[in-house]
Amino acid sequence: MFALPLLALLGGAAPVAGVFGGGMVQTQTFTFHERIIIRVPRVSDDRAAARGYSRSRSVTWHEEDSDDCVDPGRFVGAGISSERSIDFLTRDGQRLRAKLEDACPALDYYSMVYVRPGKDGKICANRDSVRSRAGGQCQIAAFKRLVASR
Predict the structure, then answer these.
(1) E strands, 4-136, in order
(2) Which helix (DSSP H) or strand (DSSP E) does residue 84 occupy?
(3) What total of structural domains would you count in the chain?
(4) Which residues make beta-bridge pairs with 38?
(5) Same-domain pairing of 102 and 135
(6) How many other C-beta atoms are found inside a 10 Å radius of the C-beta of residue 38?
(7) Range of 18's domain?
(8) Which residues contact 1 (CB under 8 A, 6 or more apart)?
(9) 3-class DSSP assignment, residue 78
(10) Do residues 26 and 56 share a domain?
(11) What are the C-alpha distances in Å from 126 to residues 63, 98, 139?
C-alpha cells in the first residue's frame, strides 16, 4: 500500500513501537488541523444590472434581531452596505447584516471578503472577524436579519 510509506515521509510524527504477534511493529501518530476560509464574492453593480436588478427599484430594509452565530454554508454572496456593515445573501433568499465593531474602510478595496469560522464551524458576533484581501480585519459586533419594509 502506498499510503503508509508516504505518511512516514511527513514530518512531525512521533514513532511508537510495540510487539504484535511475536514481531516488532512501529506506528506513527499524525494530527491534522483543518483551517477553513470562506471567500464570499461581492456582486458588482454591472453584474446586478445584467441580471435585471437596478438601484431605481431599491427596497428599503429594516433590521431585526438575529442569532449571534451563523452557519457560513448558508452564504452565497455579500455586499458592503457601509464602512460599518456587510450584508450577506443566503441560499434561502434571506439577508443578514453583519454589524462591525468599528469602521472598516479596507473592505471596499477588493471585491471579496474572507470569513474564517470558529472551531464550531460557525461565524459568531463578538468573536469572529471579516477580512479583506488588502489585509484589513474587522470584528463582527452583531448579526441582524434584514426584512423588506412595506
Answers:
(1) 14-20, 23-29, 38-41, 61-65, 69-70, 75-82, 85-90, 95-100, 112-115, 123-124, 129-132
(2) none
(3) 2
(4) 115
(5) yes
(6) 13
(7) 1-32
(8) none
(9) strand
(10) no
(11) 18, 11, 7
CB 61 within 8 A of CB 147: yes
Per-residue pLDDT for the chain (150 aa), expressed as one digit of tens each? 333 333 333 444 444 445 555 666 666 666 655 555 666 655 555 555 555 444 556 788 899 999 999 998 888 888 888 888 888 888 998 999 999 998 887 776 666 778 888 999 999 999 999 887 777 788 999 999 999 987
In a shared domain, residues 75 and 127: yes
- The span from the CA of 102 to the CA of 106, in Å, is 12
Say whether both 8 and 55 belong to one domain. Answer: no
Query: Does an H or E element contain 107, and which?
Result: none
Q: Are residue 10 and residue 73 in the same domain, yes or no?
A: no
Task: Tell me which residue has cell 484589513.
Answer: 136
